[in-house]
Amino acid sequence: MKYGFIKTAAATPHISVADPSANVAEIIKLIEQADTCGVELLVFPELCVTGYTCGELFLSDVLMHSASDALNTVCKATVGKKALIFVGSPIWNKGKLYSCAVAFQNGKVLGVVPKTALPSYSEFYELRHFVSGRDISGSIKLCGQTAPFGTNIIFAAKNNDTVKIAAEICEDMFIISPPSNRYAQAGASVIVNLSASNELIGKSDYRKTLIKSQSGRLSAGYVYASAGSGESVSDIIFSGFRIIAENGEILAESGLFESGLTLCEIDIQRLAYERRRLNVFESYDSNSRTAEFNFDETGAELMRRISPLPFVPDDLKSVSSRAELILQMQSRALAERLKFTRLNAVLGISGGLDSCLALLAVVRSYEILGRSKKGIIAVTMPGPGTSVKTVENVSELAEALGIQIRKIPITDIVGKHLTDIKHSGKKDTAYENAQARERTQILMDIANAEKGLVIGTGDLSENALGWCTYSGDHISMYAVNSSVPKTLVKYLVSYESERVVKYKKALLSILNTEISPELLPSDNGKISQKTEDIIGPYELHDFFLYYTVRFGQKPDKTLMLALKAFKGKYDKEEIKKYLRVFIERFFASQFKRNCVPDGIKIGTISLSPRGDWRMATESSAKEWLDSIK
């Protein structure tokens, strides 16, 4: 484990029904394969030592003795292996037969967990052979060792108190109150499920939903391995379905009817942060027992995919549905505010992405309210840095949306103001910010004069970086984009360009315009001030924002993830450089975020001081910066 990642595998061996020696040979092959891959947690299916479909043979002394010998063989095969390994087997203990998860590591039996819920409906008849392990807490002699036996065992890493693992078996997950509920309350951060769930039409999707839901409810990792080929097909069939989930997200899954390994890493640090953040996990006095195991930090290469755009869904279908939902949220919230205040929307249009998205939300809100678009007060305020391209964008956007845009040039007004304050004429911060503040003053005064509500256009990324002028574009009466990061703004505008054909040309032109505040004189009508040349790529900053705020992650871990996500696009020194820029600007800009206007939360991250993010303005960034030295 490194940076809190546990390399995990769910395994489905080929089974020979009632032939433990053959089954163990297959199990050991997968143990060897997993060890080669650096696996630290390995989970096999329910009753894989014998096969799940043995029927009356489970009551046979022959099969029980053979299963016991097979477990001895598995135990010996784990010598020298670092993984914590869970194997499913029938276990005879104190005159009763249980379906169990047996935990091994490095030649030791760490614990044996019996199944709680025994299905005896439809095709299942487990109560005919097995006894429930509910509320059992004792010990067992197995493989020449004495180990804890019961349903209250937490397998805990000796050197890391966040690594706690618990086991449940198949039907245990399907019942009203799964054992994993109390395991999570007792501190378990990963649940493993040794299963033998047969395949039926629609059942795979149902299992997947349950696993996603349970991992999300528990803020836990969930590793599921089910029985597959070789089981009897007299009446039912097994698909060998395997899945690894984390906090409601599917990290890896197998296809149906495939044997082998499904591998991915579970981020224990992220889960620990999520539980701290939620602060709703009640401690549970379960009289749980701890079975300790060794867990060493390793430097194995990360297998799980790291998206370079964490705010944007990966697949196109999800992007469209997510984009529509976000635009609905923005426009319906704005419609409610306009309805309540009985005001019209007033906003500045620059020809850039953010003001475009805000205007799209305004247009939708007017449609919701049944108002005429003639009531939208959209104002463009060209200044010394305004380019020909953005002027054209404004004109095309107005025509596409069917609205009128007022034009109020600010060059002379700002020039007079700078003269009044005896400014030197140098193209410095005062020169730039005077333009932003003048534009805000114009919008505010129009709103007062014409019964309007000034709609802010700034986005979440700008709030995080402080890339806004205090008391300029930083201020509005309602901030419709306040929790939409820049990378998502692009996708929302792109979505609208595809949804409404008559918008397409204008929106594509805006999407192809470089991001700029346009506060420095243009270069022969072209943009001279490019935001990403100054502060760095927004895709990097949004990546840093996501992992810093959403998961409270250390910068060195974020750097490692960024190197994987942007491999081949940015080198390590570039990423380190802009990560430092992000940290420095994020900490330095809290005073701006302390007084931002209203604006609804769209996703899992908001920097509103009234909602998700409370931070002292004087907070030091030293420890965060030191982390990436």
UniProtKB/TrEMBL annotation:
PROSITE patterns: CN_HYDROLASE. One of its GO terms (biological process) is NAD+ biosynthetic process. Keywords: ATP-binding, Ligase, NAD, Nucleotide-binding. SUPFAM superfamilies: Adenine nucleotide alpha hydrolases-like, Carbon-nitrogen hydrolase. The active site is at E46, K115, C170. It is an enzyme of class 6 (ligase). ATP binds at G348, I349, S350, G351, G352, L353, D354, S355, T457. Residues 6-268 form the CN hydrolase domain. Deamido-NAD(+) binds at N433, E462, W467, C468, T469, Y470, K592. Pathway: Cofactor biosynthesis; NAD(+) biosynthesis; NAD(+) from deamido-NAD(+) (L-Gln route): step 1/1. This is Glutamine-dependent NAD(+) synthetase. It comes from Endomicrobium trichonymphae. The gene is nadE.
